[in-house]
Amino acid sequence: MKNNFIKKIIKKSILKNTNYKIKTRFPPEPNGYLHIGHAKSICLNFNIANKYNGQCNLRFDDTNPKKEKKKYIDSIKKDIKWLGFNWYKKTKYTSNYFNQLYQYAVQLIKENLAYVEELNKNEIKKYRGTLKKVGKKSPFRNRTIKENLILFEKMKLGMFPEGSMCLRAKINMKSPYIILRDPVLYRIIYAKHHQTKNEWCIYPMYDFAHCIADALEGITHSLCTLEFQDNRQLYTWILKKLNFIQKPPKQYEFSKLTLEHTILSKRKLKILINSKLVNGWEDPRLHTISGLRNRGYTKNSIRMFCKKIGVTKQQNIIELSLLESCIRKDLNMSSPRRMAIINPIKIIITNLPEDYIENFSVFNHPQAKEMGTRKILFTKEIYIEKEDFSQKKRENYRGLILGKKIRLKYAYIIKAKKILKNKNNEINCILCKYYPKKIEKKIGIIHWISIKNSIPAQFQLFNILFICKNPEKQDNFMQSYNSNSYILKQGYVESIINQEKINHAYQFERIGYFLKTKQEKTKQMISFNRIVSLKNKYRNFI
Ligand code: ATP
Ligand code: MG
């Protein structure tokens, strides 16, 4: 963890008091799956707790039963564990404190600091004013304490319809902080809650519940994203008025992660998922934790990425290439090398006999020799990549050109002599001559597979989901959806891979890192996800 500004604040608190026990929390709302932005917050909260021998709670911020689901709770827990973090003791829920929260609301009413509102949502908004215009007091602001207590009790008993009433704090309709212009504390919602079932029909707002839950759990540093900066005024107001004055938790804000060519906001993710342009929350093109995991990203790569981006107050968009460099770095040492051909083109070596077979023993990893060796076959018929052949000379082209030589990696030099085409004038195969030498200056090297040493394979190629850099900023982000974000290809891989484990990552030489997702079974082809290409230029490889 870099020495970020939050760590500096914590160090200072510890210097002042060596018995100081750091307590943080990660407070997801169970209304969607976690994404890489959440991973930033998870790494920050859990790493701080771990580093300073403190605790980090997992607390579901479950105050809106209409949007929350048990399946989201389960996926969130799974993702945090997969990232390698353990929360302190039992999983916590804001709903654990519904009784206490209700009592605290009553306390505010008794101190004439809250009142039952009958204006509707739009009227409340209108009365609230703007940054330029001060707010106006509600005609219901001056009810008596007794009347407020009775009405709030009746709200709780389910005697009013949804939206007809709410509880508001009585603060200051002229405050320069709009959040302090009598914010709503409780609203009526008739919906079954995943934890408390039908026990409640009034639910606290985030701003009311969060600070109290933090205080009840003894959180010391309540870390959230920058859009809550103004809410801090309300956070401290509520705690002060409720007499949490002995070591109250403090809120600190940091910038949200935004990543190029993707969206992270759950609201927008839901639009995308409902449109069926992606295959649910776990689609490998999404930057949800489960999507990344399915694609083949490792927990280490995500944690490395979070470490690299750091924690600041500057809001900027992070380049996708940074995330890609992290997964390449993590997979580089652990992934065995293999050869695969995604867009095959056949080569026939004319000066080799039909049944010619030569074995080469090659290292599975150029640096990690302990990964051992394997045998590859060199035979009369082989596959190379279509992109590695050109009929004509092209600038900066390093592949095989008609009439020119190329070196086959680990094997010999070949020269392209003739193209055989089918009726539709498409290339059928290329006739080549081989030279039994392995080294020649100034010629390129390409990968290849002997037909005898290959099995058919399917490749799922994932590309950026949105063409524009910052789709979150676009009014209609769906317009920049990349229709080439998913491409299915059929090619070949070395046969040895069929005997190897599933969910195993390989580096296919010159192409990229791939995750084996399916084994060859009857009628089912062995299948791979492209986790990341070797270079950025392959990102839109079709
Ligand atoms: P979203 O905008 O994706 O719906 P949210 O803030 O509503 O996010 P929560 O479930 O409330 O989602 O978030 C839990 C925690 O994760 C919060 O503390 C929040 O600040 C943090 N968080 C959410 N998105 C990001 C992000 N992009 N970068 C960093 N932290 C984030
Ligand atoms: Mg939220």
TrEMBL record:
PANTHER family the UniProt entry points to: GLUTAMATE--TRNA LIGASE, GLUTAMINE-TRNA LIGASE
Stated name of the protein: Glutamine--tRNA ligase
Reactions that this protein is recorded to catalyse: tRNA(Gln) + L-glutamine + ATP = L-glutaminyl-tRNA(Gln) + AMP + diphosphate
Gene Ontology CC: one annotated term: cytosol
Domain Glutamyl/glutaminyl-tRNA synthetase class Ib anti-codon binding: 335-434
GO MF annotation terms: ATP binding; glutamine-tRNA ligase activity
Keyword hit for Nucleotide-binding: yes
EC nos: 6.1.1.18
Organism: Buchnera aphidicola
SUPFAM superfamilies in the record: Nucleotidylyl transferase, Ribosomal protein L25-like
Residues annotated as domain Glutamyl/glutaminyl-tRNA synthetase class Ib catalytic: 21-332
